[in-house]
Amino acid sequence: MVCRRALTLILMLLLTACGVGPPAPVSDRSVGSSAYQRGAMALPDVHVVQRGDTLYSIAFRYNLDHRTLAAWNAIGAPFTIYPQQVLWLRPPRQQRRAAAVTVPAPTPDPAVRKPGPVRNTVPQGTTPSAQQGATDSAASKPAPTATPTKPSTASAAATAPTGEASNGERVAANIRWVWPVAGGQLSRGFVAADSDRQGVDIGGRLGQPVVAAADGEVVYSGAGFVGYAGLIIIKHNESLLSAYAHNRRRLVVEGDRVKAGQQIAELGQSPRGANEVYVQIRRDGQPQNPLNYLPGH
Length: 297
Hints:
The protein is of the alpha+beta class. 16% of the residues lie in helices and 23% in strands. The strands form four sheets. Strands 3, 7, 8, 10, 11, 12, 14, 16 and 17 form a nine-stranded mixed sheet that branches. The chain has a three-stranded antiparallel sheet with strand order 4-5-6, with no helix packed on it. It has a three-stranded antiparallel sheet with strand order 9-15-13, with no helix packed on it.
């Protein structure tokens, strides 16, 4: 037993002398984004892309702006990524520090399906055919010299909530917004200081239509992750995204163009056991109070 411990100590000393350290923290898909928000989990250095991930869903998970995440990894529009690709979740200066430890190497996946052209879905009032799963894609290898981009002052100003509710609609940030569940009542409101409530819960009937809150492009439609099952993310402009979780059935796929009021899903059940949809609105990657955008209800 003594010899075995001595041998283990010698091996550890040799590894330290050779500059070999523990692997850099890698994301755990069983952990929801609220764990990172409330500090229960330290943000990992890298995320290894899994089948079904998109740059938008990864940025959403770690509360990052998708443009910043793309810049840190030298990924240009349309922000395509591929399974097993390693994405840095740190700015370039921190990447160089973390590079001293071992990080997973990307493994090419022969089954990768590149994203097709953006298509328009059927008009409001009809139901597009259901399709589960998400788009995998190919992109360049992370480059530590990339620098993050920041939205201009004019862009930030354009996303500030403005306007009043009328006729069941509200114009905010120059976008027309509608309530995501017809007749649905607010069951839990937004609490900025509570990482588990950085959106709103809207109750309704199981299977009831969930509609897009505003015009946009679907940038993620997939299983989601802990706390965000059946997740759909819609991009409204370069700064604003809306997300809808706990859907029983998703009726849109990535690349679909949707209109405000168009059905995108069927309402499901939340982890609380209630029939409700969880809605977040994010500006530059940061959660906003959805009631500052959605019409009064």
